[in-house]
Amino acid sequence: MKFQIEDVTVYFPYDNIYPEQYSYMLELKRALDAKGHCLLEMPTGTGKTIALLSLITSYVLAKPSNPVKLLYCTRTVHEMEKTLAELRFLHGYQVKELGPSAGILALGLSSRKNLCVNPRVVSAENRDSVDAACRKLTASWVRAVAIENPDIPKCDFFESYEKAASDAVLPPGVYTLQDLRAFGKQKGWCPYFLARRMVQFANVVVYSYQYLLDPKVAGIISKEMQRETVVVFDEAHNIDNVCIEALSVNVRTQTLDGASRNLSRMSQEIERLKATDAGRLRAEYNRLVDGLAQRGDLLSGDTWLANPALPDDILKEAVPGNIRRAEHFLSVLRRFVQYLKGRLQTESVEKEGPVTFVASINSQVGIDQKMLKFCYDRLHSLMLTLEITDTDEFLHIQTICDLATLVGTYTRGFSIIIEPFDERMPHIPDPVLQLCCHDASLAIKPVFERFQSVVITSGTLSPIDVYPRLLNFNPVVSRSFTISLTRDCICPMVLTRGSDQLPVSTKYDLRSDPGVEKNYGKLLLEMASVVPDGIVCFFVSYSYMDGIVNSWHESGILKEIMKHKLVFIETHDVVETTLALDNYRRACDSGRGAVFFSVARGKVAEGIDFDRHYGRLVIMFGIPFQYTLSRILLARLEYLRETFQIKEGDFLTFDALRQAAQCVGRVIRSKADYGMMIFADKRFTIFIPVSAPIEYFSTWRKSSTIYRTFDVCLLIASALRYSRHDKRSKLPSWILSHLRDAHMNLSTDMAVHIAREFLRKMAQPYDKSGAMGKRTLLSQEDLEKMVNGVEEMVF
Q1: How far is C-alpha 54 from the geometric centre of its chain's CA atoms?
Q2: First and final C-alpha spacing in the chain
Q3: pLDDT tens-digit map of 685-715
Q4: DSSP string covering 321-351
Q5: What NCBIfam families does the database record attribute to this sequence (predicted)?
Q6: pTM here?
Q7: CA–CA separation, 333 vs 293, rounded Å?
Q8: If you ran DSSP here, which 8-state letter would residue 371 be given?
Q9: What's the sign of the alpha-carbon dihedral 488, 489, 492, 497?
């Protein structure tokens, strides 16, 4: 169907559209017209991706004089492939409607590990090894030697790509990673370098968050992008954590030992080069006098990670004289490594800011801030001069230089925390120096400043007003949408006690209580006997999951559960978890039914869908608060309070509830789907102080009883963690709108009764297009009537 949104004709590849999709497009267009940034929370299973793609591509088609590029950022390769599949379907419809004029070039970009077609390279065990194996075949100096010596191995795909030069292009179309590999094999060209080159010409590019948020990667991949670009961060509920991780560095004893070995080898290479080709070292010295930015554009096979922090104007400065000579630079790094080794020998926890840390380095080993600031790029230059290709062997010294450059660049927003051991295992020495970034806005600030519009969207952004403060930006549009349903196919419940009326909670001093463990087990057992097909359980941590499953095994509860369904468990090992998921789905497909035990914040919670019969019920055992004794977390909370006036409790609750919402959201992936969500936790019973304002009480649900006598109000409530307003209000609106008063403060037997009734109701036939005047599918005619004001639709 096609319809008008103001001056834009939107091409939508389906015959009907959801009301929330249309509202989403309206708000998105407002942001694009204003050339500003926006925050949009769209319920899960409502076609957010296709709505986004349809509006933005149609917007570009409607304004050919002002072409806009789309950068679509995803968290995983799986999500990237799904987005490109949706785009291919949309592109086919647009070409059908408009002809060749609607043709675009869209492609996905990932690491060499996912794009390489050379069997000798791609067989390496991890991404870093694949990168190094590629450089050993494609570096300019290796290829130069190979011309004279045919026995030197080369990459035939890269050689063919280089030989084709400007003729190596992708024809218009939509290319997934698999398509790129197939095209590369057909043409004999390297698909990785072909995709890297075509990024600057493509209309739509789909790639990972790190390609924009990690300065080391963004400096290479995304540096050519024009300002007239719309950037979309999909599933961006954890974007602040991604930003922080991009600028954080951990250094352990193993890192420093590896760095020392790297320095020894580089020293040997320098001596070898002095004896064979001293001119290269002199040429490098002269280039460094002019500034790192004057080294010119590197050949595609020689590119390396960019600087993690330095802006272009700094790189134009001359490198400090005492690190220009290669041997002097290695001496500086040795002193820095030795200093870090000394700091790791502490027997107590130490915490300091970057300024104090840099002053300590300067006073003890004579390395000043400017020398530290240039370490990363100076190392890059030296490795190119020494013609080092096995970069995976030099990851340790890269980490040290990354640390040096970051502490030499930033004075605020970071902490250096040195811990001699993990608090949870105090008898095992494991010293670690952590450079912790606390300010997520540092990594994303260049994205906001550089590009025309940035769209941050997800199904779980509530409360949406926290993100502008965390990321330090001002959105022109900030909106949360509800979900339109023809039937109540979402059934959230809050369970606070077991059948024996004892409270259940994962509070630290209660989580190991045998009564709590028994009640949680009985809840799962009762639900396994009632709910068909798949049940997904999320725990607050791996250790808690291991402990409670072991307890269920010893008490016989696990054996009883397995009489109804098979049980599968997520582990730290990706291969084991993937195998468990495959077998879980097979059990659901065969009708045997299964239970999957998973962990909040884990891989399964973030990227795996349990739609249809794979997830009829999801149970969230407890609330997944972060480890509140973590010194890194405490330092970040202190920074957020002082800099952005975000209270510690507000942030912890916000973070825990977004993780809980993300977990339970795995169970509903479309409007035709149905499922139940159980939030199983009651932390305490509380009496609200008499001095609390009337406005606070007015927001409580009917489960609370309010007595007013003149100006004095007394609230008597069985206040449970999930039914308290301050917690519930941080859940997405599409969950809250289905959380009835009667479904809060439940016991196990009450929850089982509600589950039976819900499943019986879901078994009845229903009208998918809309019933009782509630329209959940809009046709082109409906949209035209809406625009013309002929009919008022019920959303």
Answers
A1: 23
A2: 20
A3: 332 222 332 232 222 233 333 333 333 232 2
A4: GGGTSHHHHHHHHHHHHHHHHHHTT-SS-EE
A5: rad3 (TIGR00604)
A6: 0.88
A7: 22
A8: H
A9: positive
Q: How far is CA 243 from CA 148, 364, 474, in A?
A: 46, 32, 18
Is residue 500 a contact partner of residue 562, using CB atoms and an 8 Å limit? no
How many whole angstroms separate alpha carbon 749 and alpha carbon 743? 12
Q: How far apart are CA 778 and CA 794, in angstroms?
A: 11
Tokens of 612: 């249809």
- CA–CA distance, 795 with 557 (Å, rounded to integer): 45
Helix (H, G, I), strand (E, B) or coil at 44: coil
- The residue among 176 and 628 whose pLDDT is bigger is 176
**Whole-number Å distance between alpha carbons of 364 and 103:** 62
Check whether 295 has a pLDDT greater than 70: no
Q: How much is the pLDDT for 723?
A: 44
Are the beta carbons of 381 and 292 closer than 8 angstroms? yes
Rounded distance, CA 256 to CA 432, Å?
Answer: 11
The amino acid that residue 285 corresponds to is: Y
| pLDDT higher than 80, residue 234 | yes
Look up residue 433 and give its two tokens.
């120096």
Q: Supply the DSSP symbol for 141.
A: H
- Contacts of 500-505 spanning 24+ positions with Cβ under 8 A: 501/747, 503/682, 504/680, 504/681, 504/682, 505/622, 505/681, 505/682, 505/683, 505/684, 505/721
Q: Which residues contact 452 (CB under 8 A, 6 or more apart)?
A: 35, 68, 227, 228, 229, 230
Contact (Cβ atoms closer than 8 angstroms) between residue 375 and residue 333? yes
Tell me the per-residue pLDDT of 750-767, one tens digit each, with 9 for 90 and over. 999 999 999 999 988 877
H-assigned helices in 230-305: 239-246, 253-276, 278-290
Taking every pair of Cα atoms in the chain, the longest distance, rounded to a whole number of angstroms, is 97
* DSSP assignments along 494-557, one per residue: EEEE-TT--B----TTTTT-HHHHHHHHHHHHHHHHHS-SEEEEEES-HHHHHHHHHHHHHHTH
Residues 209, 109: Cα–Cα separation, whole Å: 11
Q: What is the pLDDT of residue 729?
A: 59
Q: What is the DSSP letter of 741?
A: G
Residue 229: strand, helix, or coil? strand
pLDDT digits (tens, 9 = 90+) for 542-583: 999 999 999 999 999 999 999 999 999 999 998 899 999 999
DSSP letter (8 states) at residue 420: E
Whole-angstrom distance, CA of residue 724 vs CA of residue 653: 12
Which tokens belong to 663? 């977990």
776: Cα within 13 Å, side-chain hemisphere? 19
pLDDT over 70 at 82, yes or no? yes
CB 472 within 8 Å of CB 240: no
pLDDT at 719: 33
| Residue 415 β-bridge partners | 436
Question: What are the C-alpha distances in Å from 706 to residues 188, 645, 694, 709, 726?
Answer: 75, 32, 10, 10, 17
What pLDDT, on the 0 to 100 scale, is given for residue 726?
A: 52
> What is residue 318's DSSP assignment?
P
> Cβ of 356: how many Cβ atoms within 10 Å?
11
**Count of beta carbons in the 10 Å neighbourhood of residue 273:** 18
In this prediction, residue 428 carries a pLDDT of 80
Backbone angles phi, psi at 288, to 5 degrees: -70, -25
What's the rounded Cα separation, in Å, for the pair 729 and 410?
A: 36
State the alpha helices, DSSP H only, in 418-513.
Answer: 441-450, 466-471
pLDDT at site 795: 42
Task: Tell me the sheet residues that pair with 241.
Answer: none
C-alpha span between 267 and 129 (Å, rounded):
23
Instruction: Look up tokens 């799986």; give the residue.
Output: 78
Nearest-10 crossing angle of helices 542-555, 514-530: 80
Residues 471, 446: Cα–Cα separation, whole Å: 11
Average pLDDT, the chain: 86
Distances in whole angstroms, Cα of residue 126 to Cα of each of 129, 130, 174, 357, 380: 5, 6, 28, 34, 22
